[in-house]
Amino acid sequence: MTTGFYKTIDALISPMEQLNVLSKIEVAKLLDSSQSGLYKTFRNCSLAVLNTGNDTDDGKELLERYKDFEISIVQQERGIKLALKNAPTNAFVDDKMIKGILRDVIYTNDEIYSNPKFNLDSTEGITDAVFHMLRNANLLQPGLDPNLVVCWGGHSISRHEYDYTKEVGYSLGLRGLDTCTGCGGAMKGPMKGATIGHAKQRIVNGRYIGITEPGIIAAEAPNPIVNKLVIMPDIEKRLEAFVRLGHGIIVFPGGAGTTEEILYILGILLHPDNKDIPFPLIFTGPENSKEYFERVDEFIGNTLGQEAQSHYQIIVNDPDEVARQMKAGIQKVREFRKHTDDAYYFNWHLKISHDLQMPFIPTHENMRNLELHKNQPCYQLAANLRRAFSGIVAGNVKEDGIRTIEQYGHFELHGDPEIMHPVDELLCSFAKQNRMKLPGRNYVPCYKVIR
């Protein structure tokens, strides 16, 4: 079957694990297409997982490309089946479906949001909710020494940069380190390299964890190496999951989304309560990415200052040194966790401020009213800058954000010139380096910087 220019297929499949046994109430919620129902989230996440390997970073484009896609549940005595209509053909090989993973849509709605024991307006309540979501996804593994490296980077990177992420992943894998990424296509690189490194060391239980959320999954579908996928309910809980679960972070070249991630972790590390907590953070890329990191480092220095710059290393074109430094940093994490009786599998000690935890809805009013000035603690400025870049990501690739820009025009960013000038320069450099959209796609800014 063909929908527009894209071939589709109908199929009846048996889901695995949690989705195999559902109550009638759970099925009704999944298929409820009203505003309060879960169908839209369930459908869109399912489509994104089925469309692994897609050639678009535009969530709206993907959803419109397969606007006739439907998923429904057939209840049977021996469990349930999922009926797919007009599904992407690239989800199938010789008429057999490639195994994908979808979990936690029902759990998050029923056990978190509908559960009065979780106070999602409090710092402690949000962290507790993140813990339960990760535990439900079977990502918390007691008994394992710290070895999980979070890798962040852009979806629009050059082939040379992508190959470098594989080299770093290989060096990590040789040292027995596992990988966790946002799971989009470009971040297949570190995982792909790690699988080879693990294979050489005869490591058969390597973890390749992907953490995503409904707003981004259509633009950055999970790559096929991911063997553990969790869909968090929003970007803020996704970011907290990375930091609570991982033992160190490597940042590869990227665009606005990667800058959002950098500002998030710096907002945590700059908090006075986290001063003595070890958390290795390394920026790295090949030689031709040197200018990129110089720009990012300059931006951080001009906005957040030298203290923020002291929280990371920049290592250019040396995958083995990256892996060595990360291994050494994680050893310090292990010693600290052991000394403080903190869990190896979940970082309870880190203080994450409320500003970094509360979901930010990038409306034009909210973007316009962001406090982008230096008359505040650096960790709060980092949180507000994080929100600004999060809004730009939404306007660039998320369905709701793209529609908002189409309806109301550009987001406006207002602030002190000493903040807005570095922001504008950094974003312009990203656009010039083709880091705001996939190669071959024309980038039209969704924002205006008002100095």
Q: What would you say this structure looks like, in words?
A:
The protein has about 450 residues and is an alpha/beta fold. The protein has two domains: about 1-100, 2-Layer Sandwich (MCP/YpsA-like); about 115-450, Rossmann fold, CATH 3.40.50. Helix content is about 45%, strand content about 15%. The protein has 18 helices and 15 strands. The protein has helices at about 25-30, 40-50, 60-65, 105-115, 125-135, 160-175, 190-200, 215, 235-245, 255-270, 290-305, 305-310, 320-340, 355, 365-370, 380-395, 400-410, 415-430, and strands spanning about 1-5, 5-15, 70-75, 80-90, 90-95, 95, 150, 180, 210, 230, 250, 280-285, 315, 410-415, 445-450. Strands 10-9-8-7-11-12-13 form a seven-stranded parallel β-sheet, sandwiched between helices. Helix 18 (about 415-430) links the parallel strand 14 (about 410-415) and strand 15 (about 445-450). The longest helix has 22 residues, at about 320-340. The radius of gyration is 21 Å and the shape is globular. Mean pLDDT is about 85; it is low at about 95-100.
